[in-house]
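User: structure tokens for Periplasmic chaperone PpiD, please.
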Amino acid sequence: MALITKIREKSGIAAAAIAISLVLFLIGSDIFQGKSSLFGGSSQEVGNIAGESILIQDFQKKVEEATANYTAQTGKGPSEQEATMIRDQVWNQYVLDIAYKKEFDALGLKVSEEELIDMVQGNYIHPSVRQQFTNPQTGQFDKTFVIQFLKNLKTMPVQQQQAWANFEKSISQDRIRTKYENLMRLSNYVTQADAAKEYQAQTAKFSARFVYVPFFSVSDSTVKVTDAQLEDYLAKHKDQYKGTNTRSIQYATFPVIPTKQDTAEFYNQIKKLAKDLAVAPNDSAFAMLNSDVRTPYLLPYAEIPAAVKTQLATFQVGGIYGPFKEGLTYSIYKYGGVKKDSLFTMRASHILIAPANKSDSAKAQARQRAEAVLAQVKGGGSFETLAQMNGMDGTAQNGGDLGYFKNNGSMVKSFEKALFGFNGTGLMPGVIETDYGFHVVKVTDAKTNTSYKLAAINKTIAPSQATLDKVFTQADAFANANGTQGAFEVAMKKDKNIIMMRADRLLENASAVNNLSNAREIVRWAFDENTAVGDGSKKVFEQENQYIVAYLTGKTDKDNVTINDFREELTAMVRNQLKGEQISAKLSGIKGSLEQIAQKYGAGALVETVQDLTLSSGMLNTAGPDAIALGRIAGLRNGKRSAVFVGDNGVFIAEKTGSVVAPSLADYSIYKNQIQSMNLQRTSFYINEAIKENAKIEDKRYKFY
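Assistant: Done. Predicted tokens:
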């Protein structure tokens, strides 16, 4: 009896112990790794905007909704890159709904029901509505389409009704944002004094002579910069060096290259496919089914690969040709003959000579120059070189090449008519006039309306699973044997075949690392709170055709800026500061003319002359657009010499030799409008940055994706 009583007394303790054990089992190691919100661990917060916390559950729900909409619209799920874009869109919507809305609400900005109706079906239709309800027959917006759609909206599936509600919300937010930005723009005012100052900067001119000793004339190795100096400079210029959360890594890459055996097996596969293609009853379907990269069965001449074009004339109907190699892809073709198209395709190059303006004299000069270029080509001159020298559009750098084009209105009518009226290839005999100017033209591929029936099997050579496994084993062994950056560096010294890459200052939400396009897993590892500087990944990251072992080499914290975050930039600035002091001390002790000062100073000192400079666009020869020097020289009296002073790029002693004063104007409105226009162009950007800064946005998505 005493024993049973004892068991009953202890049963409560046992039950509690079991319950605690179950809880610990269910949440696993998350508590001990700080991943659970229990006992003060980190929360499931994906971000914080203007003091409002965004939980991962809520964020992910919106991502899933956006992904479902994307899939419904495109008929396919998003790729990794597209998934990242969807998450960015959801995040930006949160920023708009929270940070921007606070600003809009503070000013009482809103879109009324009447205004929304007007945007959708009234007198001031929103551009997005116009785009969605364009009549395919006329290419014009048709309001009757909108009205008919709205009448049927209640009978549509719930998903479509929700999509329309979201659309109306988006155009409402766009309208409110436009109102807000317009208010900010209207608050911008340019004074008469500002306009007069801008006029003076653009118009007043001055000339000068000066001794210039550039910083680069003093060897960097002779100027020692200490950490204390860097700390001092950073403290004085902290507003210029904003902190960001970044990570820097080194990584060893183990490329997976097909072996000789893989290549032999690949060739055997190609040969078998060629035999099967030859007897396939539906050759185009068979080709599509067996291709790594699918291509259309009917190809115009312009879209046929260059290597195939060279042999196309020898093709016989029913014949198998290839393999043709392009990169790592091999292609075999079954030729099925030709088909005539209603449109013609051709390729040409041109040299455009555009008139300076629309006057008859300007056009006559442009024609004369074009005809002179045509004569040079006829005389044996290189068309491509002359295009690079004389062409006045974006094709000039490519020797005037226009690529392939059809007679479907993609070119200016007069240009298209002239070219498609030309037979064969070669230089067209005369210049062609269009609204853009005068063209010298060479047809490089004659017009043709022939399309070719080509059943193409395109196979990309790839390593076998055995090869993949072998390289992975090597990478895994390396990761286990070299778990720290120190061990990695020792391994590199021992084995010169190790391929090492570096990626500096990766951002939290980066998805690419150098040329590794889908490297999100590597970035997440680098930003994991359990990854310390010097740690190796101790795991192998799989990338396309290679395996990666990574090492964290550095980190920066936006809330704790150190000299190591900007060491190179700070060192350059402090070094130039010290060079400026050193050069100034030497120059200050030298007397005489500018030439004598430069001669006594020695190597590195230059005497230069500048004429008719303005403050807005002055260039000081070797020193370039040195704002400090321009200001100091402009402020001198004519004939006066300055003391030694340090500019942006070096040290100066300047003499102002003359100036032309800008006469006063009765009306400065032109310059006022210039400043106003520049300010308006920047308004939207500045508003966005100010709102985001005021909202103190914390983006923690990198912890979850």
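User: Anything notable?

Assistant: The longest strand covers residues 329-353.
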